[in-house]
Amino acid sequence: IIGCGRVGMTAAFTMFVKNTVNELVLYGRCKADIVGEQLDLEHAMSFTGTTKVTATDDYSDIAQSDVVVITAGASQKPGDTRLDLTEKNLAIIESIIPNVVKYAPEAIILIVSNPVDVLTYRAYQIAGLPKGRILGSGTTLDTSRFRFHLSEIFKVHPRSIHAYILGEHGDSSFPAISQATIGGQPLTTFAQFSADRVQKAFEISRDAAYKIIASKGSTYYAIGVVIDQIVSTILENKRSVLPVSVPLHGQYGLHGLGLSVPCIVGRNGVEEILEAKLSWDEKRKLERSAEIIRGFTKRS
Questions:
Q1: Under a CB-based contact definition with an 8 Å cutoff, are residues 3 and 73 in contact?
Q2: Spatial contact of 115 and 86, defined as CB atoms under 8 Å apart
Q3: Known catalytic membership, residue 157
Q4: Which residues touch 144 (CB under 8 Å, ≥6 apart)?
């Protein structure tokens, strides 16, 4: 994990407690600042698994990593959008990626820092790795939030709801309602369905980060679990469908940028990009997201 702030360390804690990985390397610019994180995790080992933890400020320690998670960068402050972080975090990603490729050339790279769609595509440009080896956490968290709020409406567990938020991990995201189901039954056919109620659930999900940041300064618990889920999906070759951010090469008629769409994720990263049958309105919203992200995407 590169970047040991709240998000990085919550992800590390989740992986440590769940014994998701055999070895966990915590990379920060100053080792003295993160050696305490290593010790704090290790002191729980009597009650957890056998995950080895290493704190370091030396990129050579990430050698032979299977997955590298990047959470480093400036975070949102109250009133900020994710896109407001573009300039600062592009510079950080541009300094990190060459070192990751140098010392862990076979790793799958998971970008979490924001704006994740812009940074994922820039990382792909710099790294020169095969398609699928670089992905972003994208709208996986947005989708999890959305399913939770839908579960309050439909009175079923979020795991039984198959509904995605797609596009930008940000203000131009949208819910793919036309393809949403519960137990194979279209969401729109349930007695509890109301376009207004579902739209409200989406808006609460979309704006959740702003509310959480205003309340406690930053979001980290749910994204920490999301990171663990994506990492375990890769390492265990689950080939699960997740709405992660990926560079698009003609899918949905888009190319030259990164956005979140449903993808099969496995041991090689993004194994396949799925092209969901979106409604006309949903296609228009995806194109709008693309227009916004394209304006922030750096050309190599």
A1: yes
A2: yes
A3: no
A4: 158, 222, 226
For 161-192, the pLDDT digits (tens) are 999 999 999 999 999 999 999 999 999 999 99
Tokens representing 173? 């995201």
Distance of CA 78 to the CA centre of its chain: 21
Asked whether 53 and 26 are in contact (CB, 8 A), the reply is yes
pLDDT, tens digit, 9 for 90 and up, residues 89-148: 899 999 999 999 999 999 999 999 989 999 999 999 999 999 999 999 999 999 999 999
CA distances from 30 to 91, 162, 191 (A): 19, 42, 56
Average pLDDT over the chain reads 94
- Residues near 253 by beta carbon (within 8 Å), at least 6 away in sequence: 287
pLDDT of residue 84: 74
CA distances from 100 to 70, 83, 187 (A): 10, 24, 42
Backbone angles phi, psi at 2, to 5 degrees: -105, 110
Dihedral pair phi/psi, residue 20, rounded to 5°: -70, -35
Using CA atoms, how far apart are residues 3 and 71, in angstroms rounded to an integer? 5
> C-alpha angle with apex 173: 163 to 292, nearest 5 degrees?
150
Strand partners, 263: 242, 273
**Is there a contact between 219 and 212 (Cβ–Cβ < 8 Å)?**
yes
Q: Which of 162, 169, 249, 255 is catalytic?
A: 169
Rounded distance, CA 270 to CA 262, Å?
10
